[in-house]
């Protein structure tokens, strides 16, 4: 058992738990590091009272939201980060940039395989952009006759509880970009993607209007926290 525990130790004999985060990265790679250690590499220095790793752990537990850990970086402001002793404006900005990069990397990965005929593929494409939002937003996706993306725009930004959307707004934009098919997406800040009665009603109204204008609504997808609801998959469309 003792040999197994020491098998991956560096040649110096120094235990990995005693390494500085940068040194641990060089010797063992990023995969071997904790979230706090990864943050410590970004912020570089701590305070006289706590080292960079301890400061990283404090950052992970600061955001007062249902989402904890690294995901919480998407829900904490620069101002809130600067309230942590040892985090100035430069470090706070770096941390927020890391959070934004992670969202963009996830979206670029999903973009490579997005298929607008597949609700799961579409949900993955928009997931990182929408699941971290604290308020409800509605996105209109416009497509051409071949089902290729023309554009996607945020039509409404609502309260924490709901977003108001009218068929008029939807089809004014769809007609302006010469869309042949449309799709709606919106997020539920609660993380639960189950549709509300209001969600069902607005879907019905837009579906009926689209049929009249010959611009069919092919799906309405609700984004939760790593889960989604597709009106198409569930037989509403």
Report on this model:
The chain is an alpha+beta fold and 237 residues long. It folds into 2 domains: 2-106, no CATH class; 114-230, Cytidine Deaminase, domain 2 (3-Layer(aba) Sandwich), CATH 3.40.140.10. Helices cover 41% and strands 14% of the residues. It is built from 9 helices and 5 strands; from the N terminus they run H-H-H-H-H-H-H-E-E-H-E-H-E-E. Strands 2-1-3-4-5 form a 5-stranded mixed β-sheet, with helices on both faces. Helix 3 crosses helix 4 and helix 6 packs antiparallel against helix 7. It is elongated and about 70 Å long. The relative contact order is 0.08. Residues 1-18 have low confidence and may be disordered.
List the defining traits of the structure above.
single chain, 237 residues, alpha+beta, Cytidine Deaminase, domain 2, 2 domains, 9 helices, 41% helix, 14% strand, elongated, disordered N terminus
Helix content: 40-55%
User: At the third CATH level, what is the topology name of the largest domain?
Assistant: Cytidine Deaminase, domain 2
Distance between the termini: 59 Å
Shape: elongated
Specify the number of helices.
9
Low-confidence regions: 1-18
Determine and state the CATH class of the largest domain: Alpha Beta
| Tally of domains | 2
Strand percentage, roughly? Answer: 5-15%
Strand segment tally: 5
Question: Under the CATH scheme, which architecture of the largest domain would be assigned?
Answer: 3-Layer(aba) Sandwich
Report the order of strands and helices.
Answer: HHHHHHHEEHEHEE
């Amino acid at each position: 058992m003792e040999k197994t525990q020491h098998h991956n130790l560096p040649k110096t004999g120094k235990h990995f738990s005693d390494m500085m985060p940068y040194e641990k990265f060089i010797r063992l790679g990023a995969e071997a590091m904790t979230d706090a250690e990864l943050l410590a590499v970004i912020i570089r220095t701590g305070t006289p009272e706590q080292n960079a790793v301890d400061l990283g752990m404090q950052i992970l537990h600061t955001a007062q939201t249902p989402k904890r850990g690294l995901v919480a970086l998407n829900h904490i402001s620069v101002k809130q980060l600067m309230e942590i002793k040892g985090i100035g404006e430069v470090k706070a900005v770096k941390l927020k940039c890391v959070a934004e990069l992670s969202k963009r990397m996830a979206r670029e990965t999903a973009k490579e395989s997005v298929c607008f005929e597949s609700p799961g593929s579409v949900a993955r494409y928009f997931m990182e952009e929408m699941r971290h939002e604290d308020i409800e937003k509605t996105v209109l996706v416009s497509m051409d006759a071949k089902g290729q993306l023309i554009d996607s725009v945020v039509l409404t930004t609502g309260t924490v509880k709901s977003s108001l959307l009218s068929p008029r707004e939807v089809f004014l934009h769809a007609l302006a970009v010469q869309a042949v098919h449309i799709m709606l997406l919106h997020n539920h800040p609660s993380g639960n993607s189950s549709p509300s009665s209001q969600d069902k009603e607005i879907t019905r109204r837009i579906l009926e209007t689209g049929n009249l204008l010959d611009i069919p609504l092919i799906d309405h997808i609700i984004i939760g926290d790593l889960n989604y609801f597709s009106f198409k998959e569930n037989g509403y469309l």
